[in-house]
Design brief:
heterodimer; A: about 160 residues; alpha+beta; five-stranded mixed beta sheet; B: about 725 residues; about 20% strand
Chain lengths: ~160, ~725
Amino acid sequence: MDVSLKVNGQVRKCQPDGDTPLLWILREDLGLTGTKFGCGAGLCGACTVHLDGQALRSCVMPVASLNGRNITTIEGLSSDRSHVLQQAWIEHQVPQCGYCQSGMLMAAAALLKTTPHPSDKQIDAAMTNLCRCGTYPRVRAAIHTAAAKLKTQTKKGQKT
Amino acid sequence: MTEDITTVHSPARRNFLKSSLVAGAWVLGSSTIPMLDSLAADETLKTVSPFNSPFDFWLSMDGTGVVTAYTTVTNLGQGTHAAIAQIVAEELEMSLANVRIEHAPVIKQFHREWPPGITTFASAGFNSALETIAPACAAARQMLLQAAALQWQVDLKDCVVDNAQVSHIVTGRSLPYTALIKAAALLTPPEKPVIKSPKDWKVLGQSTPRPDIPARVDGSAVFGIDVQRPGMLMAAVLHAPRFGSSLQSVDDGPALAVKGVRKVVHLPNAVAVVAERYWIAHKAVQLLKPVWQDGAHASINTAEMRSSLLRVVAAGDGKLFPRPKKQKEGAAEVAMQEASSIIDTSFDVPFLAHAAMEPLNATVEVTATGAQVWLSTQSQTDTQNGVAKALGFQPEQVQIHTQHVGGGFGRRLEHDFAIEAALIAKAAGACVKTIWSRENDMQAGYYRPITAARVQLALDKDHLPMVLRLDTAGPSLLEYTRVTNSPARDGLDWTYIMGWFGNSYKFPLFDTRWTRVDFGVPCSYWRSVGNSQNCFFLEHTLEQAARKAGMDSLEYRRRLLQHNPKALAFVNALAERAGWGKPLPKGHYHGFAMNGNSLLFSAHIVEIAVSKPGQFRLVKITAGINPGVVANPKAVEAQMMGGTFFGLSAALFGEISFRDGKVEQGNFDAYPLVTLAQTPVLDVMVMSTGDKSEGVGEEGPPSIGPAIANALLAASGKPVTRLPLSQAGWKLMA
């Protein structure tokens, strides 16, 4: 079947085989390897992307059901690492091996969209991505930093 | 920093040299006369003489001021590349912004003695760079100084380096390195260049940001699994469900009938489907119904393995490890008889999987004359040799392209998956990327061995140790691993005594025995190796001794550290940091454990809360590490944090179990990893004393579980005799 998606703002077409998950279309057909394969069962979150702004584990979502939808991958978070979360991730030196971090960032970005100033408990509930290298405390700190920056930016925005 | 390391270095020497000898650039250290002859005649290159230097190929400098150092240490995310960049900036007195660190090509010039070949283990990366890259930089610095002095016709002693320039202090003249490279390259390198002493460090010792982190926040870092090659096909694999089984027969039809499938490959213990897309390969391989011929251990199950190991250690007939040199023969046995009391505990711990987030994978292209392998690996040389042997080539015919690694932890020291991928690619006659599913990865073995131990600690009338006796049993990873490393000695697997003799506590006499009990399950190095179980056996025994003595846990440890002021200082600092001894809320308990390593110190103090038997909360973890000199404090902190959580998952839930010969765990539902929500506050104390630096990569995992077990003992009065805690009757609550 023919599937048309908007990925990072661009219309992309593909002809997936039956129930191919979005993850493999992104990685193989579209060459966007920033989104990672970790478990294939929706358990680890390494494959997290945004579907119309909401976090989605792409390894268990058949692309055929996403015709016409908007997908954002880690490559679309910014073109130059300028997203407030990416800046916070660098400031706090969050990654170790980095393999889980695309998914981690996308999950954090989705959280900040709905909850701009999350509490630790809200971060606990939303950030269920697995990290084998133990970066969790820095993930938490970076989310708080990003949230604080957003608050300042919003305030400035309101002033003008 | 050059992120694309897939194409930087072909091990073909000609291409490698060409890439670094352009426009007067200079490679430090190449006994490369034959190679230079083979290069195209170029006036510029002709003026650059080859070096006869003991620092082969470690550095190259181009005309823009960028210095590239080639490291044999794989970037696993452990921060070593950052520290190596600091070494270069330090020794060459230049800006970090102009330093690049790249994986060395897998050629003999870069082979080390220890770790052997090109390999990343034993937490030896930083020290290895101090032995190779640091002297190369110091030599280069010296030669740049000399070149300037010669050019200006001035005294060498009046020349100094700073900020990538050489200056003449008398006249104020200066020249950037870029203007001196060619002339410096003609000089004789100093035989014994002197590297800076830590007390003179300006760049090392700082928490400089890792230059490889930005590529990890935008999805641009290329991991093994991300490699893309023209015309590449994808493969998925079904492994025999039991170790020791072989493929007897399989009807390829159901897979071949699937559109997009190119080939079905039969391997000794697996069947693979090669297809145009990974998902097609993955679905098609599930359609196959292979018939397996089972081997000798076809019906192992964990209950039986545990009971047989515990029986063996109870019997006490194990093979004796050599006594410490000063210990007289028979002294331990005599002292055992004279003991006032003996703490006697039998423990057991399970197989553990590494479960790196990037599932094992390799991309291979095989031609008539050789092969290329793109992969995440910790063992380039062993992989090169192993793949070459499997394909019938010489090692030099196999090119290894190291990618960024999505977690090593020791699993990527093995190259079983690379050989498999090579055989698949050869059969397919195409470039093939073989990706293991999480289930493949979890169930393919090379685990931390299942182990049982009976620890008998003989105490004198003051409850202080007289004899430490260990009877331990389990499979020998040295029989299974394909990592080039120290072999078993006299039929003894030395990994079973890691952290035992070489810990900081004082034990007057040792009696140490091991029995090999094999189950046909491949085992290998798991981050911290033998320390991962021995710290638990030892520290939980010491905890029971402290209780018997009616002493505070730390006070008891202090008694055993009287002879070791450095260890004592470390323990005291950690105790202060964690608030040990301060009154805790009702139902809260502290637990302490220190890893058995005499070269550096690492330990945990945990605070738990127990509301009812069998349930506990983690309130706080205080981790401490003193690795001697610290190259990058934030990087060391990150390693200790990561190691802590790695060990925490194992202690809380980690278990690879068997039923009817098969691994029971396939994915993260059955082999859980600790989540962000489950991690309490973790405070890491990084101490830095001394003038030597020890590797920190394996210092977190051993002591976190024992610290929790010790706190649980304080809470309940009952020893914890097995891990994971979930199997020992202790559930982690939110």
